[in-house]
């Protein structure tokens, strides 16, 4: 297995592709961890006052955990696109797709963590707030899903590139 090296397929192009896969996974996991930790603190504090609401209040923590899966999906798809004939165009497409997925999941994790923490505490005092909290969480999660969709579309842009040099 030999790697094709040319002007449009430099040896360092794989670095950018793998960096895109790593960024998708790392930033999505940062968002997932932050959201789960922040919302988990709210669940623990609320659980002391109202133990019966603990299971119902784990929804933000579960939603935050899903964000890491988005990064995993993107990283696997990006990594599968890296091969012998890997153009610079494809590598930058993979880098930008990975950043799109990773940063979207990071932002969604921050949103889910803050809303989840405050929401479960408020829900313990006023149960009518549960639906409102759930809607805000869904819209926060949707931002990560939008990032996943756009990131995968961007990453797929470089799939049909070739390292063959065309002489005019």
From TrEMBL:
Subcellular locations according to the entry: Membrane; Vacuole membrane
CDD domains recorded: ATP-synt_Vo_c_ATP6C_rpt1 (cd18175), ATP-synt_Vo_c_ATP6C_rpt2 (cd18176)
Transmembrane domains' residue ranges: 12-30, 62-82, 88-117, 129-156
Topology with respect to the bilayer: Multi-pass membrane protein
V-ATPase proteolipid subunit C-like domain segment(s): 19-78, 96-154
InterPro entries, per database record: ATPase_proteolipid_c-like_dom, ATPase_proteolipid_csu, ATPase_proteolipid_su_C_euk, F/V-ATP_Csub_sf
Record's keyword annotation contains Metal-binding: no
GO cellular component, one term: proton-transporting V-type ATPase, V0 domain
Molecular-function GO term, any one: proton-transporting ATPase activity, rotational mechanism
Pfam families reported in the protein's UniProt record: ATP-synt_C
This protein's UniProt keywords: Hydrogen ion transport, Ion transport, Membrane, Transmembrane, Transmembrane helix, Transport, Vacuole
Signal found in the keyword field: no
Family, as annotated: Belongs to the V-ATPase proteolipid subunit family.
NCBIfam families: V_ATP_synt_C (TIGR01100)
This protein's name: V-type proton ATPase proteolipid subunit
Native source organism of the sequence: Streblomastix strix
Lineage, top ranks: Eukaryota, Metamonada, Preaxostyla, Oxymonadida, Streblomastigidae
């Amino acid at each position: 297995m030999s790697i094709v090296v040319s002007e449009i397929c430099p040896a360092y192009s794989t670095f950018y592709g793998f960096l895109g896969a790593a960024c998708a996974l790392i930033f999505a996991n940062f968002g997932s961890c932050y959201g789960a930790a922040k919302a988990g603190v709210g669940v623990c504090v609320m659980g002391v006052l109202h133990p019966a609401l603990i299971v119902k209040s784990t929804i933000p923590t579960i939603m935050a955990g899903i964000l890491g899966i988005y990064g995993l999906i993107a990283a696997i798809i990006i990594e599968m696109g890296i091969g012998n004939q890997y153009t610079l165009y494809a590598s930058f497409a993979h880098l930008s797709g990975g950043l799109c997925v990773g940063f979207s999941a990071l932002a969604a994790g921050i949103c889910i963590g803050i809303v989840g923490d405050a929401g479960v505490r408020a829900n313990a005092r006023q149960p009518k707030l549960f639906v409102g909290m759930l809607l805000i969480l869904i819209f926060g999660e949707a931002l990560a899903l939008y990032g996943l969709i756009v990131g995968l579309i961007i990453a797929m842009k470089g799939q049909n590139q070739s390292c063959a040099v065309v002489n005019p």
